[in-house]
Amino acid sequence: MTPTTTPAPAKAFTPQDFHSGLIVRWCPGCGDYAILAAVQKVLSERGKAPHEYAFVSGIGCSSRFPLYMSTYGFHSIHGRALAVATGVKAAAPSQEVWVITGDGDCLSIGGNHFIHALRRNQDLKIILFNNEIYGLTKGQYSPTSRKGLVNKSAPYGVIDEPANPLRLALAAGATFVARTADNDMAHMTEVFRRAAAHKGSAFIEVLQNCVIFNDKVFEEYYGVKTRKDTLIYLHDGQPLLYGKTVERGLRLDGFSFSSVEASGEAKIHVHDEHESTGALANALAGLTHPDYPVPLGVFRQVERPAYHELMYEQVDAARKAYGEPDLAKLLKGPKTWTVS
Amino acid sequence: MSTVTEDGILGNTERHEIKELDSVTILFAGDSGDGMQITGSQFTDASVVFGNDISTFPDFPAEIRAPSGTLAGVSAYQLHFSNHDIRTPGDRVDTLVAMNAAALKKYLPELEKGGILIADKSGFGPNELKKVDYASNPLEDGSLSEYRVVQADITAQTIAAVKPAGLTGRNAERCKNFYTLGIAYYLYDRPLEPTFDEIRKRFAKKEPVIAEANIAAIQAGYNFAHTIELFKVTYRVRRAVFEPGTYRNISGNLATAMGVAAAASRSGRKVFFGSYPITPASDILHELSRLKHFGVLTFQAEDEIAAVASAVGASFGGILGVTCSSGPGIALKSEAINLAVMTELPLVVIDVQRSGPSTGMPTKTEQADLLMALFGRNSDSPIPVIAPATPGECFECIYEAARVAVKYMTPVMFLSDGYLGNGAEPWKIPDAAALKAFNPSWGLDPAGFKPYARNPDTGARPWVPVGTPGLNYRTTGIEKAENSGGISYDPENHQRMTKARFDKVAKIAQEIPATPVFGAQEGDLLVVSWGGTYGATLTAAETVFAQGKKIGHVHLRWLNPLPPDLGSILKRYKKILVPEINVGQLAYHLRGTYGIPVESYARIRGKAFTVGELVTAYHAQLPQGA
């Protein structure tokens, strides 16, 4: 964590400018490497210097991420990244704050902060590295682990119902909700670009493979060879089509989707990121393998004032109403008496 | 109308016998909805404006509206006012105002024998008596013969008095606390005009009818007491002699909030205040929420952990993070406090202590979080701890906590308590311009910048505002290498960094002035106190010292580090006694620190010491006949 000299602002940045120089120590083959590369690539395109960003994380394999960035970084404590980041953003409102978290950090020990950061529309770009396992503590099940998974802390199989991160985010009122995958660099960078441009909470679930404790957990549906049939890519204003030859699509039947042949009369649903109720995003977030194609892309994007804007609006309004702070007047209060 | 003369005597002396008193303790008690807190604070304001010294203690139930007429629903306000310097709300009550049977039952044991009881007859109906298991009406059965009982149908008389103002029904009945206030004003010769002015100021624009009704109720109560010669004797407490200066009345929680605002105003950086509501600390959040123009960003977090974690984040961001709670909340915050210890970020943690453990008695006071503040975190975690002695001192101490947090780059624990937070006293207003400014800019030159380099004077690392070009750095709760701040598992480095964190806190001793010792400078007994017990422990020491005993008294503001001269002071006495509202935590700490025997006087009843019990306790430690 030696300090990094920030390049002059006019300079175009390279992904390398966003690397702290610290040797990256995730396991060989870990999905985290690709996410780090994608974030560094996206940041290098945006014209902002490393010192204009802050990366905040909790505890877990993914939470080492800020230490590898040349930006400001705070590797904090388990579950509290969003709360810490809330304070950073309030203290330094012009700083662009990103939060790196995992399925245990964000949804288990940090579940409460997750709800409330999104509800308040804190201006944070939140990347959830979802590998459906506890990696750093060496292989216990996480809140997103699938039912029946057998591992160290569940030798007879997991009996918990897994959490659905996107549905939790939507229910909490998130203004930007997306999903991408660690094995698709083009898609990841595009989603991160969109998130970076969003004002308010941007929540991105990355399907991230843990090569040691939960290897190939997403392979069935995100494997490169088969994914055209098992994933569906969301594009705003475009029909929900998928399949090797784009032969299938999703039709809205009541409150849920059906996978149908994409013939001329099929009434394939057109994706709308800005749909006001969030109900359709929620329906999409409920689609799981193998019954449905798993959606990747931006589920929801709506505008709402960010928390720090409202917070500073009140400070400015108070300044206007009461003028510059007068400490002597405050100390005196409404009623005094003098002893001579 | 009465006028105040130079020496503080009211001008209307045409009446009956008037007795001069040095001090009086009055306790207003009634149902939670009876407005006893308002009555008490109005009487307090009137006494303060008149020039008495005062000390108050509001005592209210945890239930917002407990069933009316029950013991659980009794709300009370105790006021001690005097013509001399006083520091406690009074040991025994001279006058008890009881608006119903429950109030009488709960507080009669506090009333001096021969004391005055003012009772509202309408609060002693069959229902009210039954609710608190009175077999017969104590106002009528002769059981109160040891007291001077003054009873009236205050409710009915109030309704009649406010009728001309246009108030009827429940609204009219609600003025009965003001009627009672009028009676009390007559009894203690208080001027009415300041209260009338206050009421007009508060209500006249929005609710002129309420203003007129309240004024009418006070006047009617006063006139009633006067006309029917309710009291054979009334009393006077002359002005106290104060140090010259401008004064106001202040509670500990308000003083704390103003100290935080002062820190924001004088530090050159904003303050972030992350808090989650909890009794008895919430008033600090309420006050600061109104002081945004001072540069205080208040954040009501989703829980105690988010409150402190966001404050730590704000400190990382470059403005001072402050968090505020009571014991149960502080317990939840301990991991995040340690993050500030480990990353070496400034943080102020306010603990308005309450009775525990667990939920305990939330509205009752205690000073039992000392050992938690000193040691209640994982691993070797040094934290400076400061505790105010009086409500007014909360201002100075929280400001000092903020200044030290920034100067030494460390969390600082501020231990107030329910007694200080809710209690009030006259406060000599400090000179705002004389507060030490603190704007740290040490170590921020990009050339040779090292995030964990240390200032040789303080041991502090640089405080970098996030976003500063050229100073981008990363920090973590993992152990860091000296200077560079890079992750380090080197065993010798961990030893050195642990020591550096302790040395840094130990250096704060250079901020502590010489410890004043009251009374005998050496001798038989040294009383050592800390926090809110200051007033009672010192007053008791004064009493025993005046009796010719070789007793000294020392009050500690800093609990970590302890004052550098304390060890040598302790050696000058044969015995050390520490009175505390806990099982003996400071006594335990002093034994461990100095390896000397320390006696403990521990009382854990959710309320402050009385001076009387402490005098007895001191005598028990002194040699007989000495």
Would you spell out the secondary-structure blueprint of this structure?
The complex is a heterodimer of chains A (340) and B (626).
Chain A: H1 32-44, E1 53-57, E2 72-75, H2 81-91, E3 96-102, H3 103-109, H4 111-119, E4 124-130, H5 165-171, E5 176-181, H6 185-197, E6 202-207, H7 219-222, H8 227-230, E7 231-233, E8 241-242, E9 248-253, E10 256-261, H9 279-285, E11 294-301, H10 307-322, H11 327-332, E12 337-339
Parallel strand pairs in A: 1-2, 1-3, 3-4, 4-6, 5-6, 7-11
Antiparallel strand pairs in A: 5-11, 8-9, 9-10
Helix pairs in contact in A: 1-6, 3-4
Chain B: E1 17-21, E2 23-31, H1 36-50, E3 53-59, E4 74-82, E5 93-98, H2 101-107, E6 111-120, H3 126-131, E7 148-152, H4 154-162, H5 169-173, H6 176-187, H7 193-203, H8 208-227, E8 233-237, E9 245-251, H9 252-266, E10 271-275, H10 282-289, E11 296-300, H11 304-317, E12 320-325, H12 327-343, E13 347-353, H13 370-375, E14 385-386, H14 393-408, E15 411-417, H15 418-422, E16 424-428, E17 474-476, H16 491-506, E18 518-519, E19 523-530, H17 534-546, E20 551-556, E21 558-560, H18 566-570, E22 573-580, H19 585-594, E23 599-602, H20 611-621
Parallel strand pairs in B: 1-8, 2-5, 5-6, 6-7, 10-11, 10-12, 12-13, 13-15, 14-15, 19-20, 19-22, 22-23
Antiparallel strand pairs in B: 2-4, 3-4, 9-16, 14-21, 18-20
Helix pairs in contact in B: 1-6, 4-8, 6-8, 7-8, 9-10, 9-14, 11-12, 17-20
